Amino acid sequence: MQNYWDKAISFDEYIQIANQRLNNPENAKDLEYKPYYELGIQRMDRTLKKFVIDEDQLSELKSKNFDGKILIISEAWCGDASATVPALVKFFEGENEVKIFLRDSDSSLIEQFLTNGTQSIPKVIILDKDLNVKNSWGPRPKFGHELLLKHKANPEEYPKELFYNDLQVYYSRNRGKDSIQEILELL
After folding, report:
1. What is the 3-state secondary structure (H, E, C) of 142-186?
2. Cβ atoms of 88 and 179 closer than 8 Å
3. Distance from the Cα of residue 69 to its chain's centroid
4. How far apart are CA 19 and CA 145, in angstroms?
5. pLDDT in the model for residue 53
6. Name one Pfam family in it (predicted).
7. Which residues make Cβ contacts (< 8 Å) with residue 144, sequence separation at least 6?
8. What stretches of 7-114 adopt beta strand conformation (E)?
9. How far apart are CA 37 and CA 20, in angstroms?
10. Positive or negative, the Cα torsion across 26, 138, 54, 162?
11. The whole model's pTM is what?
12. How far, in Å, CA of 127 to CA of 135, rounded?
């Protein structure tokens, strides 16, 4: 884990890379993902502007005396990540160090934290102070997962477009609170 932690970046660097890939695509993938980077950056900006730390959750974090670190496997083009990562970073800011590991730069880390066989992100890895894996969470909170299952169970009645819309409305209203709570329960 030390190697992954050392290669991970700050949230500010994460945003800078997203803007760079949006404004100056370096390869075919960056070009193809340009609309997703644009949307992801907009969503992250909105989350950063509207996020307010829940004092009860902050008290819960402090009561757990968690002295570890948070490593998030992510990419800025991901809709789930753009809704979740900024809230997590802001919540843990000043309490625990948070770094982001870019999934697409090295898949060896995400391969250790697959979700039903897929490289789904964001994936939050909870590390103790010695960088041992304590737990992991992701890629989305329970309610978001339930929406996904509803879509997969009956895509004709609950098509992908409706699923994505409902998920983004949920993220916009919830502002990371459920994700933070689920992670607090894993500390």
Report:
1. HHHHHHHHHHHHCCCCCCHHHHHHHHHHHHHHHCCHHHHHHHHCC
2. yes
3. 15
4. 29
5. 96
6. Thioredoxin_9
7. 80, 167, 170, 171
8. 69-74, 98-102
9. 10
10. positive
11. 0.95
12. 7
**Residue-range domain boundaries for the chain:** 2-139+180-184
Calpha distance 119→79 (Å, rounded): 14
Cβ 177 vs Cβ 89: under 8 Å: no
* Inter-CA distances, 186 with 22, 109, 146, Å: 34, 20, 20
What is the tens place of the pLDDT at every residue in 93-146?
999 999 999 999 999 999 999 999 999 999 999 999 999 999 999 999 999 999
Length of the chain, in residues: 187
Q: Report, in angstroms and rounded to the nearest whole number, the Rg of the chain calculated over CA atoms.
A: 16
What pLDDT is stored for residue 175 in this prediction? 92
pLDDT of residue 100: 98
Predicted local confidence at residue 131, as pLDDT: 97
Instruction: Report the top-level CATH class of 2-139+180-184.
Output: alpha beta
What pLDDT score does 7 carry? 98
Token output for 120: 């789904």
